[in-house]
């Protein structure tokens, strides 16, 4: 429907411009080289002007620029037409070029410019389209995440780190614009997340969305985002199967859970550990991670010792501890939150078993250490962000100073948000001044950069831009050491 309407408007525009030029030109018959590129929100349409009788001498290049607010016309040699209003009722458009060979004595440039300013040539053109969430001075981004309740600390830390990165970007400017973030709480509820995404896109008119949390909330918002072609950048806590379903709409700035599982199992093989067990959240996402760990164990030739599913509310941690103690594993992978992980570990120790415990990145090591005290020594965690306390890393140093100034706690979650914010800012810069959602998608798909010790690469169709994983130890005071 839209493409047909754009085609009708294009034909009308070409006919009108042709007639206008015929009235102004005389001379030998020469072709007009192109009726530029006609861009709608979903693709490209082309056309051409019929040959005109214009003078032999070539010279001028006229551009009708419908991409900027106010819609103005320009001449190649620097002449500029004052802003003019787009014609009412036209379809939103982008940039249209009209190349003509002409003799300035036969067709006065000033006459052409005045005709354009008066609307003689511009009236049928596609009207200027202001991209949602973008003004001359601001880019509005949206976030739907769990900002209240027991699951909120990680999401709030992500947001705090991102805001610091956005302030850094705003100090430099992104083609004269500043980033503004509008955040809504979804309480980790998929239905509420969908409502939030609809409000962000349709009511608040955000340009793009960032830092969603959780696979089900992300899936719930996906139809809204896809319908409006809104990019979602750096969602966290999203299992790999959901990542695959969001291909083309979402861009992930942390390694996949399969990558984490592979790194842990590879570490066990290096240390000579043969028997591996898993404690996981008893959810579809937890089951998926269990399968990924089993696959990695089989691939490395190790032995899967058993597993225990833990209810999200932690109500069966004692039973889980018994099952893991009976498994006789040398290493236990914990795909659990901090409190549940601490309870399971205590249950295993209480029965005399002493495996090595390895948490995946969702485990809050500081929370676990606070609950276990001295017993937490030896707990290792796979982290998908670099060490935030690295004194040799200039980006990490800048992040810590900014955290101190902003009152944001230094840690893996806020550092993840900080690096994600840097990726967002760089993608916006590379998308250019003439900012559209499609151009941001294109910028992200071509993005390769190094930031904070991470190599990001979204080229070749990758929706996950990094493979970074490293293991760190948790001290009794909750501090991480490498």
From TrEMBL:
Database matches in CDD domains: PBP1_ABC_ligand_binding-like
Keyword tRNA-binding belongs to the record: no
Record key words, sorted: Signal
Location of the Leucine-binding protein domain: 141-479
Family note: Belongs to the leucine-binding protein family.
Protein name, UniProt field: ABC transporter substrate-binding protein
Organism: Caenimonas sedimenti
């Amino acid at each position: 429907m839209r493409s047909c309407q754009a085609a009708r408007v294009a034909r009308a525009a070409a006919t009108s411009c042709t007639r206008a030029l015929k009235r102004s030109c005389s001379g030998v018959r020469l072709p007009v080289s192109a009726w530029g590129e006609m861009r709608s929100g979903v693709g490209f349409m082309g056309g051409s002007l019929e040959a005109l009788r214009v003078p032999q001498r070539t010279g001028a290049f006229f551009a009708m620029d419908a991409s900027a607010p106010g819609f103005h016309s320009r001449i190649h040699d620097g002449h500029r037409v004052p802003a003019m209003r787009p014609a009412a009722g036209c379809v939103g458009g982008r940039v249209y070029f009209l190349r003509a060979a002409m003799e300035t004595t036969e067709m006065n440039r000033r006459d052409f410019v005045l005709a354009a300013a008066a609307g003689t040539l511009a009236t049928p053109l596609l009207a200027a389209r202001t991209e949602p969430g973008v003004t001359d001075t601001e880019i509005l981004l949206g976030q739907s995440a769990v900002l209240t309740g027991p699951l909120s600390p990680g999401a709030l830390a992500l947001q705090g780190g991102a805001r610091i990165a956005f302030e850094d970007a705003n100090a430099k400017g992104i083609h004269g614009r500043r980033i503004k973030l509008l955040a809504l709480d979804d309480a980790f509820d998929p239905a509420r997340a969908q409502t939030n995404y609809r409000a962000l896109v349709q009511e608040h008119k955000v340009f793009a969305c960032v830092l969603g949390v959780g696979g089900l909330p992300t899936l719930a918002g996906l139809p809204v985002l896809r319908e409006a072609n809104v990019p979602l950048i750096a969602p966290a806590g999203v299992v790999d199967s959901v990542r695959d379903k969001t291909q083309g709409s979402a861009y992930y700035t942390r390694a996949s859970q399969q990558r984490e599982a592979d790194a842990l199992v590879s570490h066990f093989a290096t240390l000579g550990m043969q028997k591996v067990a898993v404690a996981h959240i008893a959810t579809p996402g937890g089951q998926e991670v269990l399968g990924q760990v089993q696959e990695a164990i089989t691939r490395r030739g190790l032995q899967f010792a058993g597993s225990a599913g833990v209810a999200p509310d932690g109500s069966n941690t004692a039973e889980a501890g018994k099952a893991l103690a009976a498994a006789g594993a040398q290493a236990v992978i914990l795909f659990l939150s901090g409190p549940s992980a601490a309870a399971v570990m205590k249950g295993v120790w209480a029965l005399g078993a002493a495996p090595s415990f390895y948490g995946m990145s969702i485990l809050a090591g500081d929370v676990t250490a606070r609950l276990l005290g001295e017993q937490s020594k030896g707990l290792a965690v796979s982290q998908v962000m670099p060490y935030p306390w690295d004194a040799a890393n200039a980006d990490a140093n800048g992040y810590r100073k900014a955290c101190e100034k902003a009152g944001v706690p230094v840690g893996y979650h806020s550092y993840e948000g900080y690096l994600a914010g840097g990726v967002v800012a760089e993608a916006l810069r590379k998308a250019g001044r003439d900012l559209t959602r499609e151009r941001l998608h294109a910028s992200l798909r071509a993005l390769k950069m190094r930031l904070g010790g991470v190599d990001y690469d979204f080229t070749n169709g990758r929706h996950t831009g990094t493979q970074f994983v490293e293991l760190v130890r948790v001290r009794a005071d909750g501090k991480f050491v490498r």
